[in-house]
Write a structure and sequence with these properties.
The structure holds 2 protein chains of 2 kinds.
Chain A lengths: L10 E10 L2 E11 L4 E6 L5 H9 L6 E6 L2 E2 L4 H5 L2 E4 L11 H11 L4 H14 L15 H13 L5 E5 L7 H12 L6 E5 L3 H7 L2 E6 L2 E6 L7 H12 L4 H4 L2
Helix pairs in contact in A: 3-4, 3-5
Chain B lengths: L2 H20 L2 H23 L8 H26 L2 H6 L2 H5 L5 H22 L2 H9 L4 H28 L3 H24 L4 H7 L8 H4 L5 H24 L4
Helix pairs in contact in B: 1-6, 2-3, 2-6, 3-6, 3-7, 3-8, 3-9, 6-8, 6-12, 8-9, 8-12, 9-10
Classes of the chains: A alpha/beta, B mainly alpha.
Chain lengths: 251, 249
């Protein structure tokens, strides 16, 4: 069996940059993610975490560079690449007037699942994400925690090869955080995930590798997450915010 | 993407949008308000004889005049919400990250709103039916009149959808769409104030005066059908490009 490092990349960012007017929000950033990896994106506010995820999800086009998902270029073949992705933004994209199950069924069909499969997928993901008891509830009537989990469920419902989660546990209670962790741990070996979070300990719990972004660029990329504790990550971020080099703050 | 995939995605979006419209107070209020206004106008002019007794053909002309005014308002209100509402609510990301083309998003939403406009016309059918029962007007004239109203509604809806794709909010989409439609409605008036060839050009783009009146009189001409279809298709293609361009902004 090939070691993780030798496996072909499922996600490849090559010199990605994003500018909003004169302001550089991201890059140049290059990153490779292999099957089975759950990569955590850490960084201060404005570091470029959300921008990187939106580019990978196909919601935002990069100003330069390319993003490749399973060999499909997001710019040249966007629909084929997007079919492989599930994206949960920080604010869940929910239709308040729909029931949870019908919404998840709609999300699955939108990603190409036939109607019969979509219904099965919706029921399955309701179970996996602890939403079974609210399956018939109207989304608009649910609490923040449930809405957040529905946002994650819609990203996973069609069984995507690449899962992108932006701040998936923000606003969840400890039990919900634990359930969300479990969902991420159960991702298949042929899947890959990128998770951004402000909760540094959270990333250490669920990720096999942590990448720290600072001012749109990669400041750290380490897969020995066991060696990372909150204090170490915090030191890196504090050093970065003070303008010091990343090497100085590395463990 | 195959044509079947595109059609499937378009239908899926149209169905969801139609369900959302069915539960929308704005859609029901707009449709009910328009029907009420058309009904009152029809009663006053056609039944009560305000402004003097009229021949059935004149009553029908008045009805289609009111119906075309109503459809412009409804199309603007429904069109403004298509894309801008998704952006306001943060749900656009669900569509923009799905493996579907921008065209399917735009056409799906347009089709749902056009269905509501069609339903509005269906509900107003009793008024021309009463005129028809009185005699003096042909079924063909009623059908051509409705075709004109639907084509006008489609064109205005297309423009409003384009405005919705460009604008960040529903309010700014409504303002932008209304401004474009107002210019096209008043083009014939502006045409009177300038010399040829500008006067002819302005008359040629007059949304109602030049292209709707023949339908109201029961005249079905290719040039007027082509004008509305071209305006609708151009607006939808531009809306689709605008949705795609937002990814780059």
């Amino acid at each position: 069996m090939l070691s993780r490092r030798l496996r072909p990349s499922v996600i490849e960012l090559i010199g990605i940059e994003k500018h909003f007017g004169d302001r550089r929000a991201l890059g140049p950033l290059s990153l490779q993610v292999r099957p089975g990896e759950v990569v955590g994106l850490a960084g201060l506010n404005g570091a470029g975490k959300t921008t990187a995820l939106r580019i990978l999800a196909g919601d935002l086009a990069p100003s330069a560079g390319s993003a490749i998902i399973f060999g499909r270029d997001l710019l040249d073949d966007p629909t084929a690449a997007r079919a492989l992705i599930g994206f949960a933004p920080d604010t869940p994209p929910l239709h308040d007037e729909m029931t949870v199950e019908s919404y998840l069924c709609f999300a699955a069909r939108l990603r190409g699942s036939p109607r019969a499969d979509a219904m099965k997928q919706a029921r399955a993901i309701l179970g996996r994400t602890g939403l079974l008891r609210v399956g018939d509830a109207v989304i608009g009537s649910l609490s923040h925690g449930f809405r957040k989990r529905i946002g994650i469920a819609q990203a996973l419902v069609h069984g995507p090869r690449v899962v992108l989660l932006d701040e998936p546990t923000s606003g969840l209670d400890p039990a919900q955080i634990s359930e969300t962790r479990e969902v991420l741990r159960n991702l298949g070996r042929d899947q890959a995930a990128i998770v951004s979070s402000h909760l540094l300990g959270e990333l250490r719990e669920i990720c096999s590798r942590i990448v720290v972004l600072h001012e749109g660029r990669m400041a750290e990329d380490r897969d020995d997450t066991e060696a990372w504790n909150e204090r170490v990550i915090e030191r890196i971020l504090v050093a970065l915010s003070a303008g010091a080099g990343s090497g100085e703050a590395a463990p | 993407m195959s044509a079947t995939t595109v059609a499937r995605a378009t239908l899926l979006i149209a169905t969801r949008e139609l369900r959302a419209l069915a539960g929308s107070a704005l859609a029901w209020t707009t449709v009910a308000g328009t029907l009420l206004a058309e009904g009152l106008y029809f009663y006053a002019v056609g039944v009560a004889g305000v402004g003097g007794a009229k021949a059935p053909s004149e009553i029908l002309l008045g009805f289609f005049d009111a119906a075309s005014a109503g459809v412009i308002v409804v199309a603007l209100l429904l069109g403004m919400r298509t894309i801008a509402r998704e952006r306001e609510r943060g749900t656009m990301v669900l569509l923009s990250t799905a493996p579907i083309g921008d065209g399917a998003i735009v056409v799906g939403k347009f089709a749902a709103s056009l269905t509501v406009i069609g339903l509005l016309q269906l509900l107003s059918l009793y008024m021309p039916a009463l005129v028809f029962a009185e005699g003096g007007v042909a079924v063909g004239r009623v059908a051509v009149g409705y075709l004109g109203v639907l084509l006008l509604g489609g064109a205005v809806l297309g423009i409003a959808t384009l405005a919705s794709a460009i604008a960040r909010t529903q309010a700014s989409a409504a303002a932008m769409g209304s401004a474009i439609v107002a210019v096209l409605l008043l083009a014939w008036l502006l045409g009177k104030a300038v010399d040829p060839p500008w006067s002819e050009a302005l008359r040629a783009i007059a949304l109602h005066h030049t292209h709707q009146r023949p339908f109201m009189r029961g005249e079905l001409r290719f040039e007027h059908v082509a004008f509305y279809v071209a305006l609708t298709v151009t607006s939808l293609v531009a809306a689709s490009r605008a949705v795609g361009a937002k990814r780059w902004s």
